[in-house]
Amino acid sequence: MPIGEVSGSDDLSGGLRSLSIPGVLTRACPIGPASPVVVDSPHSGSLYPNDLVCSVPRMSLRRAEDMYVEELFANAPKFGAIFIQAHFPRSYIDPNRALDDLDPALLSSDWPDPVKIGEKAQLGHGLIWRFCPPDLLMYRDPLPSSQVHRRINKYWRPYHDCLRTSIEYIHQRFGEVWHLNCHSMPSSRRPGVLHRGGCAQADFVLGDRDGTSCGQEFRVIVADTLQSLGYSVAINDPYKGVELVRAYSNPAAARHSLQIEINRSLYMNERTLQKISYFEALKADLDKLIAAIADFATTRLVAAAE
After folding, report:
1. Spatial CB neighbours of 52, under 8 Å, sequence gap ≥ 6
2. How far from 305 is each of 132, 143, 174, 175, 291, CA to CA, in Å?
3. pLDDT tens digits along 128-186
C-alpha cells in the first residue's frame, strides 16, 4: 500500500488517519481526545522479507530486535497519542539511521548517492548492517545497489514519511509535539555491540543527544515518572539517541524528541526470548508513563491558552 493510501478510521477529525502498510508499518491514531504526543517503535519489527538472504541464523537476527517493545507501548492511543511501529526488522534496513550512513564496501557496484560513514556504519550497524551482534557477518557476497535502493524505497522512506507527517500534523494542530522514540537494550554491554566492559545497565536509559533534541522538562517528566515507579534511570549513557530523534526534533520550534531504552531483563528472558512474569506489570507502568507525558503535554497547552 502506498504511503498516501490509508486504512482504518479517521481518528483526528478530518486530518491524520490510522494507516497500515502490510509488512512495513502501522500507525494507530488516538482513541478519544488527541494529545500532542507521538510514540514510535522502529526496531521491534519481526516480519522478515523473502529477499533477505544472509549468513546469520534467524535466532541471532531475532536477538537483535527490540522484541516486544511494540506490545509494551501498544496502549499509547488510549492516552491520546499517535503510535507508529515498524514491521520489518532493523537487520534488513535500519530506519534509525541516516541514508548516507552506509558502508559502500557492502555493495557490488558504485553507490550513486552521497555517503558519510558515521559511527554506526563503522561499527557494522549502519543503514544496512555488515554485522549482526556480536560479530556475525551478515552477507558473504556484496549486495547489488538496486537491492539497497529497493529496501530504502519500500521500507525506510515510508517509515520516515509516516513519522514525519505525524509529527508535522501534531505540531501544526497543537503548536508543539512531544515524540517518544522507543527501544530496548541488552541487560549488559557485550563485546562487539557498541560498548565493552560488561557493565550492568540501568533499567531505562533516556537519550536527548546531550540536551539538543528536546526541552529538559520532557526528559525530567519521563525520568521522574519512571523513578517514582521504582526504576533506575540513566541519561545519555550509553545511548544518546540516533537518527529518528535527530532528524525530527527542533526544541526551539517546540518539536521535542526523546529516545527511551528499556532493559530487556525487565520483561524477557534474553536467552529463550520468552516474556517473563513481570511483563504485564511493566506494560502497566509504561501506560502510566504515557499517561504522565500526555497529561504534561496537555496541561502545557491549557496553561498557554489561559
Report:
1. 89, 91, 92
2. 50, 54, 11, 11, 21
3. 999 999 899 999 999 999 999 999 999 999 999 999 999 999 999 999 999 999 999 99
Sign of CA pseudo-dihedral 47, 50, 53, 58: positive
Question: Among positive and negative, which fits the CA dihedral 49, 54, 58, 60?
Answer: negative
In angstroms, the CA 254 to CA 205 distance is 23
What are the chain's domains?
Answer: 19-305 (3.40.630.40)
Residue 150's pLDDT is what? 97
Count of CB atoms within 10 A of residue 187's CB? Answer: 15
Confirm if 3 and 46 have CB atoms less than 8 A apart: no
pLDDT of residue 118: 87
Q: Taking the model in full, what pTM does it have?
A: 0.92
Q: Give the closest residue to 220 by CA, choosing from 288, 228, 305.
A: 228
